[in-house]
């Protein structure tokens, strides 16, 4: 099982993608999509240096994604207001640094996707020496609030989802 | 007033907005003081063209535009990534 | 006007609202691109175009075709997922390219000084 289906979630989403692309539910397309779902992860496994992600707690992941979606819509309206109503010179755009504890590469990828999807914040890079995240904020009013928000509302759930609770567990 | 005229008016309004948006992108593409501005404007232009294809699909009631929009999204991603990587590393005189 | 079949009112009004909203948000994003002063502010403009403008149009398209053809048409979800997964990568790469270029320009202007953190 583990050997032929290294990541069942990836295979299922490839099958779903095939069915949606063809807009059909015929048995033949289930077969083709199934072959695609089994073969593509096997063939692309050498391309993934960190292996497939293990999602420990799917429920926490969904809650995180829902929170992020609400946050995206909310900050869309904030950015719209700023663009339409304020003069460009008055907007306080700044780089800030956020110290991170998250180490898992998949978790960092998810964190960067969520932060970059939210209008008004852009991830620049991780400064390697102290594992700090360099972030550009469109309209900064309180740096400590941003650090607190990112650490509690984004980083903590991602650590729950992707990293093993006990240090002796098998990290992938 | 039927729903067809309502939809036609709404899609015409959205088309006008998107075309205006594309004009603004083109303005930034031509004016843009630095190369990264131009790449950003080009990326936004790709997005606008994708939205334009979807709108034309709704307006003409045809699903062929969906494939066009999907391919535009794919090509836009790849070309912007290539340009951004070029900006980062590919200076002619390093 | 070739297409645009008649939908029932309960579907036509949300579709029309989503279309108008999506068009306006797309426009606002590019106004930000054209109007803001520095590059680091301009990069935040298109983010709303991508996240919410394209999102509204995609939902409108899904709703329209689902009702017009009276079957479930959700393959626009593919575009949404693709855009949501790739747009962050694009903005991060452009941002890093801009930061590297600015740092390099600062170093070239002033070779003695190790350019600090932008």
TrEMBL record, chain A:
It is a multi-pass membrane protein. It is found in: Cell membrane. GO terms for cellular component: plasma membrane. Keywords: Cell membrane, Membrane, Transmembrane, Transmembrane helix. Its main location: membrane. Pfam families: MNHE. The keyword Protease does not apply. GO terms for molecular function: monoatomic cation transmembrane transporter activity. InterPro entries: Cation_antiport_E (IPR002758). Belongs to the CPA3 antiporters (TC 2.A.63) subunit E family. This is Multicomponent K+:H+ antiporter subunit E. It comes from Thauera phenylacetica B4P.
UniProtKB/TrEMBL annotation, chain B:
It is found in: Cell membrane. It is a multi-pass membrane protein. It comes from the Bacteria. Keywords: Antiport, Cell membrane, Ion transport, Membrane, Transmembrane, Transmembrane helix, Transport. GO terms for molecular function: sodium:proton antiporter activity. Belongs to the CPA3 antiporters (TC 2.A.63) subunit F family. This is Multiple resistance and pH regulation protein F. GO terms for cellular component: plasma membrane.
From TrEMBL, chain C:
GO terms for molecular function: sodium:proton antiporter activity. The keyword Transcription does not apply. InterPro entries: PhaG_MnhG_YufB. The keyword Membrane applies. Keywords: Membrane, Transmembrane, Transmembrane helix. The chain crosses the membrane at residues 12-34, 46-65, 77-99. This is Monovalent cation/proton antiporter subunit MnhG/PhaG. It comes from Thauera phenylacetica B4P.
């Amino acid at each position: 099982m583990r050997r032929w289906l290294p990541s069942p979630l990836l295979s299922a989403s490839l099958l779903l993608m095939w069915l949606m692309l063809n807009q059909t539910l015929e048995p033949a397309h289930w077969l083709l999509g199934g072959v695609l779902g089994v073969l593509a992860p096997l063939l692309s496994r050498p391309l993934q240096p960190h292996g497939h992600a293990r999602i420990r707690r799917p429920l926490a992941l969904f809650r995180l994604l829902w929170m992020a979606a609400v946050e995206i819509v909310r900050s869309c309206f904030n950015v719209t207001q700023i663009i339409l109503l304020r003069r460009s010179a008055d907007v306080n755009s700044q780089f800030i640094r956020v110290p991170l504890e998250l180490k898992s590469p998949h978790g960092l990828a998810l964190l960067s996707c969520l932060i970059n999807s939210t209008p008004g914040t852009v991830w620049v890079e991780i400064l390697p020496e102290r594992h700090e995240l360099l972030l550009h904020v469109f309209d900064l009013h309180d740096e400590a609030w941003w650090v607190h928000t990112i650490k509690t509302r984004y980083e903590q759930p991602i650590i729950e989802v992707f990293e093993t609770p006990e240090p002796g567990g098998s990290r992938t | 007033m039927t729903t067809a005229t309502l939809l036609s008016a709404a899609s015409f309004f959205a088309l006008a907005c998107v075309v205006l948006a594309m004009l603004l992108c083109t303005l930034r593409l031509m004016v843009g003081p630095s190369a990264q501005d131009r790449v950003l404007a080009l990326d936004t232009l790709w997005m606008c063209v994708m939205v334009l294809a979807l709108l034309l699909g709704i307006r003409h009631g045809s699903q062929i535009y969906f494939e066009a929009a999907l391919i535009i999204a794919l090509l836009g991603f790849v070309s912007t990534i290539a340009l951004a990587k070029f900006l980062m590393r590919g200076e002619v005189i390093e | 006007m070739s297409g645009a079949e008649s939908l029932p009112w309960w579907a036509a009004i949300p579709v029309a609202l989503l279309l108008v909203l999506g068009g306006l948000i797309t426009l606002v994003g590019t106004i930000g691109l054209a109007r803001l002063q520095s590059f680091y502010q301009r990069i935040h403009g298109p983010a709303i175009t991508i996240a919410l403008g394209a999102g509204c149009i995609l939902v409108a398209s899904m709703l329209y075709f689902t009702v017009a053809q009276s079957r479930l048409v959700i393959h626009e979800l593919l575009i949404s997922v693709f855009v949501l997964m790739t747009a962050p990568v694009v903005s991060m790469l452009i941002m890093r390219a801009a930061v590297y270029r600015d740092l390099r320009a600062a170093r070239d202007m002033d070779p003695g000084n190790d350019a600090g953190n932008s």
